[in-house]
C-alpha cells in the first residue's frame, strides 16, 4: 500500500495536489477538513462541536479527530492506499495514525511537506475565500489558522524526519511544476 501524508500550511496546495496524486496513483482520499465540513452540513453532534473550532481557526480536539478518522478508514477499506490531507496536525494524531495503520498491516509511506511563502499563503486563501464559501477563509480566521499551524502543526515535520518519511517539496510555482516534484518524490518510495 502507498500511504501518503500531504502536509503544509493552510493554502499550501494540499487539496489541489491531492486530486492529482489520487488520479496518478489510484489512492483513496481522506481530508479531515472535508469530513468535518460534511458533518457540519449534516448538522450532526460532531459537526456542531467542530463548527466552533473551525470558525475560530482552532484545531478540533485530537480524540474527536482520531475516532472520526478510524471510522472513515474502516468505511473506505482502501485497496491501493490512502492520501491523508489535513491529518495529522499534531504529534498525538501522528502517533494515532501510525498505530491505526500498523494494526491494519501497513504504515505511512511518505510525508510530503509543501513549502510556500507566508505572503503567498495569505493571498491564495483570500482568493479562495471569494469562491469557496468557506466560513474560515477570511483574513481574521486565516491569521489564526496560520498561527495554529506554526505552533501546533509545523513541529510535526520533525516527527516524520525521525521516522525517515519526510520529504520537503517546493510548493511555489505552477500546479504542474509542483506536481512534477511530488511525482519524483513518490516514485522514489513506490
Ligand atoms: P482544512 O480543510 O484541512 O483546512 O481544515 C479546516 C479546519 O478543520 C481546520 O482549521 C480545523 O479547525 C479543522 N481540522 C481539519 N483537520 C483537522 C485535524 N486533523 N485536527 C484538528 N482539526 C482539524
UniProtKB/TrEMBL annotation:
Main location, first listed in the record? cytoplasm
Q: What class of enzyme is it?
A: transferase
Q: In which pathway does it act?
A: Purine metabolism; AMP biosynthesis via salvage pathway; AMP from ADP: step 1/1
BP terms from Gene Ontology: AMP salvage
Nucleotide-binding as a keyword of this entry, yes or no, is yes
Keywords, ordered alphabetically: ATP-binding, Cytoplasm, Kinase, Nucleotide biosynthesis, Nucleotide-binding, Transferase
| InterPro entries according to UniProt | Adenylat/UMP-CMP_kin, Adenylat_kinase_CS, P-loop_NTPase
Q: Which Pfam families match?
A: ADK
The subcellular localization recorded is: Cytoplasm
Source taxon at top rank:
Bacteria
Q: Which reaction does it catalyse?
A: AMP + ATP = 2 ADP
Write down the EC number: 2.7.4.3
Record's GO cellular component, any one?
cytoplasm
Q: Name one GO molecular function term.
A: ATP binding
Q: What family, per the record?
A: Belongs to the adenylate kinase family.
Write the protein's name: Adenylate kinase
Q: Upper lineage ranks? A: Bacteria, Pseudomonadati, Bacteroidota, Bacteroidia, Bacteroidales
Amino acid at each position: 500500500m502507498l500511504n501518503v501524508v500531504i502536509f503544509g500550511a493552510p493554502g499550501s496546495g494540499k487539496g489541489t495536489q491531492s486530486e492529482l496524486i489520487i488520479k496518478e496513483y489510484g489512492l483513496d482520499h481522506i481530508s479531515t477538513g472535508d469530513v468535518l465540513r460534511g458533518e457540519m452540513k449534516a448538522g450532526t453532534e460532531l459537526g456542531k462541536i467542530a463548527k466552533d473550532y473551525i470558525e475560530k481557526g482552532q484545531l478540533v480536539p485530537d480524540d474527536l479527530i482520531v475516532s472520526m478518522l478510524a471510522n472513515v478508514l474502516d468505511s473506505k477499506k482502501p485497496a491501493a492506499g490512502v492520501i491523508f490531507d489535513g491529518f495529522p496536525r499534531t504529534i498525538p494524531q501522528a502517533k494515532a495514525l501510525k498505530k491505526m495503520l500498523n494494526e491494519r498491516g501497513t504504515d505511512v509511506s511518505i510525508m510530503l511537506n509543501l513549502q510556500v511563502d507566508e505572503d503567498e499563503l495569505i493571498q491564495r486563501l483570500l482568493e479562495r475565500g471569494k469562491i469557496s464559501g468557506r466560513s474560515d477563509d477570511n483574513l481574521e480566521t486565516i491569521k489564526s489558522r496560520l498561527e495554529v499551524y506554526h505552533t501546533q502543526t509545523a513541529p510535526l515535520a520533525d516527527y516524520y524526519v525521525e521516522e525517515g518519511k519526510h520529504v520537503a517539496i517546493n510548493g511555489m510555482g505552477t500546479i504542474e511544476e509542483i506536481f512534477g516534484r511530488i511525482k519524483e518524490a513518490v516514485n522514489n518510495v513506490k
